[in-house]
Amino acid sequence: MAKFMLSVFLMFLASACASSSLDQNFAFNTTKSDGILAIKNPRINNESWLFLQKVDLTEQKFVGSPLEFSTCDDCLPSSNTYKLEKSDTPDFRLLPIPPGTYAIVGLLKWERTGGNQRKSLHSCFAKATAVFEVKAGKVNMVATAKNQNSAISNLTQLKSLVSTFPGITSDVISAQLLAVIAFDANGHGPLQSNCLNGIDGRSFNILRRLDNRTIASIATTI
């Protein structure tokens, strides 16, 4: 079941669209109190939002309100998510967030069905999702590659991209994957009224601990 849910999870991650490009003068260094979350994404013309939730592994509870990782052109510049790319490279999405442990708990995707008509697709990753650590003053990559070699390649690509931005002097690291968890989806229907509604303080089960794995991919751990 966990592997099946992973395939669905990765399919939705792969359907995100482009965000606004990162300004060449963007600055980020080791003195920053936030960290930067980075996720590689292909160029597909959709509109979607990933929802990140802070977790407390000791208490096995979610903490606070969900954060939006937007990949929607129409939603910017109100969103803090940026696209990092060059003409001959894959692109990555970057989001500055407070340090801590997080899980991707849901996704909202809009699909155009013709003309101005759109439909929304909601996915709650309650059956299995990975917990990862975002460190302050670092660019933290969460890999979604299907094997270890691809995850390492993604990290190399991201480091190369970041090196072209002189204002980013922080280290680029692979986010540590700490555990795989499952939680109650709180019913069925739109994310905001079920999966995400009242998630602060909701408990979860730890399916497996991952012993601080680095240079690892969600796809190789769930």
Notable characteristics:
single chain; DUF5675 domain-containing protein; signal; disordered N terminus; mainly beta; globular
Could you describe the 3D structure shown?
The structure is a single chain. By secondary structure, the chain is mainly β. The protein has one domain. 12% of the residues lie in helices and 40% in strands. The strands form two sheets. Strands 2, 3, 6, 7, 8, 11 and 12 form a seven-stranded antiparallel beta sheet that branches. A five-stranded mixed beta sheet has the order 4-5-1-9-10, with helices on one face. It is globular, with a radius of gyration of 17 Å. The termini are close together. The N terminus is likely disordered.
- Give the H and E element order: HEEEEEEEEEHEEE
Number of domains: 1
Strand tally is: 12
User: What gross morphology would you assign?
Assistant: globular
Organism: Sneathiella marina
Protein name: DUF5675 domain-containing protein
Keywords: Signal
Could you give a quick summary of the protein structure above?
The protein is mainly beta. It is 12% helix and 40% strand.
